[in-house]
Amino acid sequence: MTTDLGACEWFVWDLRRSNLIDRGQLDQIIGEFLARHPGAEPPALAEYLVQQGILTEFQAERLLQGKTQGFVLGPFTLMDALGSGSMGTVYKAQNKTDNLWYAVKVLPRRSMWNVRIARRKVRAFEQAQHPSVVPFIDVGTSGGMHYLAWPFVDGTPLDKLVEQNGPLPAAQVALIGLQAAEGLDLVHQQQLIHGLLKPSNLMLGGDGHVKILDFGIGCLLAETEGESLVDTMSTANSVNSGLDCASPESIMDPNNLTAVGDQYSLGCVMYFLLAGRYPFPDGTAVEKMMAHQHKQPASLKGLAPDTPDELVAVVEKLMEKDPANRYASCADLIAALRPLTSGTAPTRHRVTQRVATVRPGAPAAPRPTSPSNQGQPRKAADKPPAQPQRPAPAQPAPVRPSPVVAEPEPVGYDAEADETPARPKIGTLALVLIAILAGTLAWVATTFLR
Fold it and tell me: Which of 127-141, 255-269, 387-401 has the lowest mean pLDDT?
């Protein structure tokens, strides 16, 4: 490049390091811009690149902050930030191989795993295709960061739906429970457990069909062949974030993920949808853990008096403390819920939030090669073709979530090391028992030593 870059020099060099734009194309675009605006500052150049569809607003903002790494993870180019949680930050990304849209979760750099084992979990999901299941389809390591990928779909998480509209009608809750149970029944047959069901991990599409998100995270938290796939701190964070719907047995041992444990969590989700509150909404983490093990929640009939007795009985059976007293399988749960949804059609609603998940086969617009149309497709280009065997979510107007600015910068790491040895983790059960003991002692002290 022979053009005098002026004040934009550092920004142009950061653009080159980001690998977002082909070097030859970048030099041509920058040369044309600076020829017309010789004294331009980096923000003006960034705005121009966004207007031309070369960069997304998210990419431009991060580059202006001096962050050049982590935009490209394996085949995925990160286009936008969707949110962050206990296990990492989620981004909307486009796959350079198939031009489809994906939700990519970047895990904390401290997480260590054996990628070979994780990919074996991915292959298991190929046998568990269901409209309610958003499959875990890829896992990898790039630039010192680990990532997981799912297809991307639009919808509203159930916690946001209740926050916006209050408790849901009993018929709708029964239908949501039935759809979720059908998806769980299929994956349980493949020996796949979710392990982290909660309202924020269930999304209602514009067509009224529920989607189960974050499949695969629970698999990584569990012990597999004596090896830890995710470190102890990530496990503890995930368990803590899911305490409102955690089964008693998983609280005692977060690695003890079972099909009947998913039943308990689904019961807590249905309780939340009917009552507008969690079964044990108050107290510290230790108090919630003890409540799930020993206490009964407030009467669902008292909180939601219009709920049919039959649906109340289903929720109560799902939330039995003893796993042996729950349903033998989700097939039995389906049989119990189906009569309660007779004649109930999925409730269509306006999608209010774009959330990370993906419908397999939903095509993204081809990545353009000219400056006039390159970048992230918008609006109609995001709409997938109709699928004959599964309902197609209604497409809302694109809503750009607030960018998440916390992203780990990669450090030196062998990105090709597919056999990374797992790091031993402290016994999670021991940590949980210590926490429970400390809470119990505190309660005794405050109760009897006044």
Answer: 387-401
- 210 and 319, same domain (yes or no): yes
Regarding whether 136 and 55 lie in a shared domain, the answer is no
pLDDT tens for each residue of 353-376 = 444 443 334 444 444 343 333 444
Are residues 205 and 305 both part of a single domain?
yes
Residue 145 to residue 140: CA distance in whole angstroms: 8
Say what angle helices 42-51 and 57-64 make with each other, to 10 degrees.
170
Query: Looking at 382, 406, 438, which one is the last position of a domain?
Result: 382
**167 in the same domain as 212:** yes
How far apart, in whole angstroms, are the C-alpha atoms of residue 25 and residue 28? 5
Asked if 126 and 165 sit in the same domain, the reply is yes
Domain ranges, residue 187:
72-382
Single pTM value for the model: 0.68
- In this structure, are strands 223-224 and 227-228 parallel, antiparallel, or unpaired? antiparallel
Same domain, 185 and 249: yes
Final residue in a domain of this structure, among 48, 64, 80: 64
DSSP letters along 63-122, please? HHTT--SSSEETTEEEEEEEEEETTEEEEEEEETTT-BEEEEEEPPTT----HHHHHHHH
Count CB-CB contacts under 10 A for residue 185: 18
Which range has highest mean pLDDT (246-250, 340-344, 438-442)? 246-250
How many distinct structural domains can be found in the chain?
2
Nearest of 430, 367, 413, 358 to residue 387 by alpha carbon: 358
